[in-house]
Amino acid sequence: MPPTTIEHTTVAYLDNEDSVDISNPIHSTEVAKAYGFAGPLVGGVTVWGWATDTILEALGEDWLWDGWAEYSFRQPTFPGDTLVIKAELDEAQGSEFWTVRMVNQSGELCVLGKVGLGRADWSHEFVRPRTMEPVDESPEKGTLTLDNAKPGTDWAAAQVELTSDLIKEFVSQKQRTGNALFNGNSAIAHPSWTAGWAEKLLRHNYDIPSSMHTRSRVQHYNKVSVDTSVVGCAHLIDVYERKAHHFAKFDVLLQDNNGSDIAQLRHWTIFKIATVEERANMAS
């Protein structure tokens, strides 16, 4: 009988230089500690990306171009944490549905997700942008606020050429995987590269001091091969405040050179992280 539980272990690492000058400084020690965290937070899509080989063992390669995932971050992951990645078959749903948990050395549930093949029940909910014409990033981007956000509007699209050098850099620095699918002359984009487009588009449009990815839904439609020109655009669904944090919820569409869909994402992120004092005031 095929396995109903698959388990792997990984040790978390910081996938960038520990510097406040990085694009999202919550992943640096100095800034993260200023916000009250024990150390630098490892990026959400990086952490979820470590579950890829476990998911592929459960569902096979078809998941990369005809599969879905939804996941949320329950506790931060810090460099040096030991994560047990466990995928368990949801036997009530059939062989195409698995629950994925990532638990640290203290027994804390850091990530909870579900994955499957085909189209997710929620895939019809995505809002498609009205245009996919890429625009150069403006040097004078404004900040995103609860007051100036415009739910129901599209953001400016961005374009990236997926070169072999870009794939090599991503795999060697962020995912550090030896999986042949993501290495070599015929490599394809890692699914965490696809998921990372949401935060990329957020910063393509706004000056964001620090952000924290909290939740995602991802529907894959096609693999992304070397030398594909990828265009991504986002549609803002909502902004709101919770526990003094400011959240944005938005949908992302990725397409290839031919205008064919690669993936759609629904992304939740904290675009303004509450300070220690702001959180304390909420609790008092």
Write up this protein:
The protein is an alpha+beta fold and 284 residues long. It has 8 helices and 10 strands. A hairpin with a 5-residue loop joins strand 9 and strand 10 (261-272). It has helices at residues 29-34, 44-49, 52-59, 63-66, 164-175, 191-195, 197-205, 276-283; strands at 5-11, 67-73, 82-89, 97-103, 109-117, 158-162, 212-220, 228-242, 245-255, 261-272. A 10-stranded antiparallel sheet has the order 1-3-4-5-2-7-10-9-8-6. The radius of gyration is 18 Å and the shape is globular. The chain has a single domain, classed as Hotdog Thioesterase (Thiol Ester Dehydrase, Chain A, Roll). The model has no long low-confidence stretch (mean pLDDT 94).
Spatial gap, N to C terminus = 55 Å
Q: Tell me, what's the shape?
A: globular
Largest sheet: 10 strands, antiparallel
Identify the CATH architecture.
Roll
Write down the CATH topology: Thiol Ester Dehydrase, Chain A
CATH homolog superfamily: Hotdog Thioesterase
Mean pLDDT: 94
Run of helices and strands: EHHHHEEEEEHHHEEEEH
Secondary-structure content class: alpha+beta
Helix % is 10-25%
- Specify the number of helices: 8
Tell me how many strands there are: 10
Total tally of structural domains: 1
The level 1 CATH classification is Alpha Beta
Question: Cα-atom Rg, whole angstroms?
Answer: 18 Å
Kindly report the spatial arrangement of strands forming the biggest sheet. 1-3-4-5-2-7-10-9-8-6
Low-confidence stretches: none
**Residues in β-strands, percent:** 25-35%
